[in-house]
Amino acid sequence: MPFIPHTDADTEDMLEVIGVSDLDTLFDEIPADLLVDSLDGVPPGLNEMQITRLMHERAARDGAPLCFIGAGAYEHHIPQAVWDIATRGEYYSAYTPYQAEASQGTLQTIYEYQTMITELTGLDVSNASLYDGASALAEASLMAVRGNRSNKSGRILLAPGVNPTYEKVATAIAGSQGITFERLPMDSGNGNAAASLDNDESPVAVVIQQPSFLGTLEDVDRLTDWAYERGALVIAVVNPTSLALLKAPGHWGEEGADIAIGEGQPLGVPLSSGGPYFGFMTCKQKQVRQMPGRIVGRTTDLDDAPGFTLTLQAREQHIRRSKATSNICTNQGLMVTAATIYMSLLGYDGLRQVALRSHQTTARLVAGLTALKGVERLFEGPHFHEVALRLDRPVAPVLDALAEKDILGGYDLSIGCPDLGNALLVCATETKTDADVDAYVAALKVILEEENRRSA
Amino acid sequence: MSELPGDLLYTREHEWLRREDDGSVTIGVTDHAQAALGDLVYVELPEVGQDVENGSDMAVVESVKAASDVLSPIDGTVVAVNDELSDDPEKANADPYGEGWIVRVQPSGDIDESEWLTPDAYQDLLDEEEA
Questions:
Q1: Does B69 contact A319 at a Cβ distance shorter than 8 Å?
Q2: Which of B64, B68, B4 is nearest to B31 (CA)?
Q3: What is the ipTM of this complex?
């Protein structure tokens, strides 16, 4: 699909047809006090040569450190073919196409993506993706409120292991619509929801993250059943790689989660300093009318040949305007294309190997680190590919010292979870060799011992 | 255009009302409305027991090309919904004044029938819109 910008003459012609003097007049309905004259802190524009140079300089500053940070975004090996195929001209668009007659290939790719994500999550329907994992939680929260109309409380309970950034984003998006988020109490021994929960609760939805942000594995069956007994819907927040090993949300507890969402980045999308990523969302069939975003369906044409098309569009804002289920009007089509190719190339066994290898590498890392004096596990219990550690000193200076040795040693939990004290979240995916792990352990040993000597 | 049932009242939003013996009011969309929407694929119904206000959204009828709100023409409480539409939304296409009824509301106060259109007045509205 070519992108052809309007010429000045085109713009003039169009303005004349609708009888408007200039482009700014089209925005007259925006109150003057909401308009901003200048953008403070935004530097003047750069030309292509200048911006290329700036970006090369900044990329060089990043270097190629050994990365042991997870906390929501994960470094996985991406087969070369993924982006070679995804960036072919036929695929290279961020948008989901409206025109079925001109877009069968892209629509089929999205349909296959939806099929794979529903299989991974064990639920009935997937949309064509959302912006990212955090905003997907906001959309799932709004969806749960629409889908559980008998409960007017707007109160959503979060398991202790829900990513604190997701909570912030969901509060920013859904908070102004009468939705409140509260945390369930934590069992300080295993980092999961407390063993005894208040049975007088009647939330509209309960959000359960698996594996938890703190690296622990929540008793999802128990929490799901607890939520159902209270008449709440269950929103699962899951890591797609982990689903090759862990129980799919659709099978949690007696009834299964109603909605599953998560960050799709681990499926073939590079870390790229934080984005673009994509969010995925699946749900039970009975919630499909409340689902935001685009859905691609399979159908047959007049000659009975199979074909693909956008479906259930009456929920969406180009039809329903202000009454649409969501203001989400696009998705991360290009990222989804990459994820579909990634999953196709790996297959179920490949994804399982990635998950297993990441788990084993993290276990090796944790065994090495906790053998050091002053490092211990923060929580007991099993893990997937991420573990919270307690240090006997503040985490930030230790991470700085590691960075000087070209090692990104993990995520400082005092940023999002200050109550946990000197806590560090470490992750080792399949990209880390035994030598990488040993290098991290050796470096941390030296740093801790040097600091001990200095303070002695 | 088919004959409008003479025992119903109508609204400018192309809904019909029938006053039942027990004081409740049955509400649906008119033949004109269902024809304009096209084949219905889904009807979103309110909960029984839900309070509704005159002019507020109460249900949604969705076709392959559009979704349209069904507004409550009175203040009151929903006492019945046509659950059969959940499985068979096309009943509202095939028999809009009969099996395709949508909601029954018990009014909370007195009803002023003059707010609504008689069959003749509604026919005039349709003729006007067509012109």
A1: no
A2: B4
A3: 0.72
